[in-house]
Amino acid sequence: xxxxxxxxxxxxxxxxxxxxxxxxxxxxxxxxxxxxxxxxxxxxxxxxxxxxxxxxxxxxxxxxxxxxxxxxxxxxxxxxxxxxxxxxxxxxxxxxxxxxxxxxxxxxxxxxxxxxxxxxxxxxxxxxxxxxxxxxxxxxxxxxxxxxxxxxxxxxxxxxxxxxxxxxxxxxxxxxxxxxxxxxxxxxxxxxxxxxxxxxxxxxxxxxxxxxxxxxxxxxxxxxxxxxxxxxxxxxxxxxxxxxxxxxxxxxxxxxxxxxxxxxxxxxxxxxxxxxxxxxxxxxxxxxxxxxxxxxxxxxxxxxxxxxxxxxxxxxxxxxxxxxxxxxxxxxxxxxxx
Length: 338
Description:
This protein is mainly α.
């Protein structure tokens, strides 16, 4: 049962913010650094994404459209359905965070890793995750503005302008400059990956510092937290079942169904955390809590499923008949007998 080391770092960052939150001038410095970190993140996203690879992947358009429908249609519908759990199981702020979770794009790295482990269609998983991330740059803020309104993030023309300036403009700049910096980004992928993760840790520290100063821990009781975990487990189970059996109904092959299941049932922590800091501002701490919990849950469950799919594929290979080899063997044996 994998425990993502990065989750431990995130939890440690939350603990640091709880003990030593940024206040006063330090909070202003942290906020400015967090804003710059988010812009850097989306600039690097744009510089990494190969436009040519994304366009080549359009050939498998049925699978990609299905993944996008799961990510930006079915997931949000489940999030809206969870509105009926307020206030009995979820508080309104936790529900806002849960709804935001359903609007976040799919993962790329873990979808590819689990698809590969399960012997699925890895190129399709790469393209599906890339398309989801690309569409999410625009779709997630627009869906959040439409579904959350002024209740969660305080959306206004000024907020939408901030979204464009902090998310979309850096991403487009990365795409435009990819021609000149793409090789550098590829060569230094590991180092820049550390920059990514460090930037997200800074975003989490800033968000939870604001939350601690505002008394976030007085708003979430253990019972509410347990209720949130149960609700997220149900949503994950529904999506895993829907993507697997829905893929069968759509007549996708086994390899494509595996890619659909892992790309269509997951949500990206790396994309969601910086987006939340822009969309929710001072309320970002509670908004990212459901996403952090869901991220770890999906890793554990999908790792188990991927191993099971791999065992099934291995068993099918062992039991599959080999007519050509069998025929040659029987012929050779008959000749020796004669």
